[in-house]
Amino acid sequence: MHAFLVFLQQNPYILLFTVVGLSVWVGRWTVQGYGLGPVASAITIGCVVATWGAANGVEFTLDTFTKSLFYYLFMYGVGLRVGPSFINSLKGDGLKFVFLATLSSLLGLGIVVLGARWMALPVGAAGGILAGSQTMSAAIGSAEQAITSGVVALPPGSTAAGATAMIALSYGLTYIWGTVGIILICKYLPRWWRVDARQAAQDYEHEHGVPNVDDAGLSGYRPFDLRAYRVVHPDTVGQSIAQFRARFPQYQIENVERGKRLLGADPSLVLRHGDVVALGGSLVALTDHMGSIGPEVPDARALNIPLDQAEIVVTHRAAIGRTLQDFRTSPLAGQVQLTGIERGGVPLPMGLQTRLQRLDVLHFVGLRSAIDQATALLGPVARPSTATDLLTLSLGMLLGFGIGLVQVPAFGATVGLGNAGGLLVSGILVSSLVSRLRFFGNTPNAARNVLEDMGLIFFVAIVGVNAGAHLLSQLSGTLALQILGLGFVACTVPPFVVWAIGLHLFKINPAILMGGVAGARSHSGPAREAAKEIDSSVPWIGFPVAYAVSGILLTVFGYFAMVLAQ
Q1: How far apart are CA 170 and CA 90, in angstroms?
Q2: Residue 409 pairs with which residues in a beta bridge?
Q3: For the chain, does the N or the C end have fewer beta carbons within 10 angstroms?
Q4: Domains detected in the chain
Q5: Where would I find the H helices in 438-523?
Q6: CA 244 to CA 235: how far, in whole Å?
Q7: 9 membership: H or E segment, kind and range
Q8: 3-class state of residue 221 by DSSP
Q9: What's 306-326 look like in SS3?
C-alpha cells in the first residue's frame, strides 16, 4: 500500500484525476434523493486521500498554478451564466428579488463573521463555514485568496497551509446541513406559515396561462403544423401567392409542386388548378377554411421543407415588456413554435402573460421564413452551434485579469477585486455584450458548463488534497461542534427572514416566493423540490434573478468573511 501511495505522489496528474473520478462517482450516490454531489465529494475525497497518505508517511501536494487556473475558468464561467439575468435584475419587479437575495447573503455573512469572532475560531473557519452553510463552493476560492494575498494576517505559529486546511474542514462539516437544510426549509415554509402554496400556484397558472409542465411527458399536441393541399377551389385558382397571403394572413405557403417540379414559394407565383401547395400555420388555423384551397393530400415531395431552429435574444424595444399573448395576432402566429425561454441561463415557465425582458433567450422551431421575420420583430438570432469562440474567451479572460489588477485606496491600504473578482465581472460584461451583438462570441451552454463544472470540481479537489495532511492536527470535538452549530444558524435563519419579508412586505405569490428563497441561496435543488411539492413549475419564475445576484455576492463574500472575522 505504501508503494501505491508513493506512486500517486510521484504522478500528481494520476492522483488528481483519481480524486476527481471518485468524486463524480460518489457524488451520484443518494439517500432518499439527497446526496453530496460532485463538488462536496471532491473536497471530502481529496481530504480523505491526503489524510490517508499523511498517516502512512506520504504527503500529497498539487501545484497552485493548476489550482488557480481551474478556479479562474470557473469564475469566468459563472460570469457568463449570470450576466444577462444580473443586468435585467437591476430594474422593475426584479428589484424585489435583488433585495431578497442581497439580504439573504448579508445575513449569512453577518452571522458567520459575528459567530467566528465570538467563539474565536481559527483562521480559515469563517470562509469555510460561509461556503458550506450557504452551499456556495466558489466562496472557498475567494476565502483562500484572502490568505494567499496576505490580506489576512496569520497568528504566530500558524501557516497558510493550515488556514487553507481549516477552510476545507469547515466547509465539509457545514455543507451537509447547508444542502439538506435549505431544501427542507424551502419545501415546507408554506406549511409552517399555513399558506396553501399549491392553490396559489394553480391560481397563478390559471391567471397567467402557465401550463404545468409535469402534467405529461411526451404530448401529441403540436401548435404548429405543415400540410399539403391540392388547388381546386375556383377562388384560389389564378391567384398569386401574395394575393392568397393577403386573404389568409394566418397561412404561409412554403412550397408549390406542379407536375413533377417544385417551384418554391415566390410571392408572384400564380397558382394553377391541380397544383399542390405546402401550407404552414397553427393547428387551429389549418382546421379552418379547409375548403378554400382543396382536398388535403399526403404529398411527401411538397412537404419536404426544412424547418429551422434558432435562439433569438430579445433586444428590440418594441418587444421588451410585451406578453406572449400580445403576439397571437402577429404574422408569426402559426408560423413558428416557441419551445422555451431562458432568463439568465435558467429555463423559465411560459404562459400567455409571461412578459419579455431584455436579453431573454427565446427558442424557436418553425418555417425558415418565419424565423427571419421573428428576428426583425424580437432581436438577433443565433443558430445552434457547438463551436466556441476561443478568441472571445481569451479576450474576456485578459479583460478579467486587467480588472483584477486595478487597486483603489481604502482603509489606509489599497484593495481590488483580484483575479477571481475581475474574471467574474468580465464574464458578466462579455455575456451581456455578446447577447446584444448577435452572438459574435459564441459560447454554447455545454462549453460554459464545462468551464464551471470542471473548473470548480478540479479546484476543490486540489484544495482537499493539499489540505488533508493538516486536518488531523486541527480537528477536535469542541471545534467541530462550534463549526457545526454556527453553520446550522447561518443556514437556517436567512431563509425564514427572506420568506417573511417577501410574503408580508412585498406580497409575492407564495409559489413564486418558494423559488425566490431558493434563488437567494443560489441553489437549484430547493426550487426543484418546491416544484415537486406543489406540483407546479411556478416556483422557477422567482428563481433566476435571485440566483444570479446571490451567486455573485456569496462568491465574493468568502473573501470578506476571512477579512472581517479577524
Answers
A1: 34
A2: 414
A3: N
A4: 2-208+403-564 (no CATH), 224-303 (3.30.70.1450)
A5: 445-471, 477-500, 510-520
A6: 10
A7: helix 2-10
A8: coil
A9: CEEEEEEECCCCCCCCCEHHH
Look up residue 455 and give its three cell numbers.
Answer: 473548473
- The one-character DSSP state at 361 is E
Backbone torsions φ then ψ of 536, nearest 5 degrees: -155, 150
Residue type, 518: A
* 541 secondary structure, DSSP code: G
As a whole number of angstroms, the distance between CA 463 and CA 355 comes to: 44
Q: How far apart, in whole angstroms, are the C-alpha atoms of residue 256 and residue 37?
A: 55
Amino acid identity, position 47: C
| DSSP H or E stretch at residue 41 | helix 37-55
Residue closest to 460 by CA, chosen among 558, 526, 546, 527: 558
Kindly report the number of other CB atoms within 10 A of residue 160's CB atom: 15
In the DSSP assignment, the letter for residue 538 is G
What's the rounded Cα separation, in Å, for the pair 562 and 566? Answer: 7
What is the model's pTM? Answer: 0.65
CA–CA dist 312, 382 (Å, integer): 6
Distance of CA 239 to the CA centre of its chain: 51
Cell output for 480: 467541530
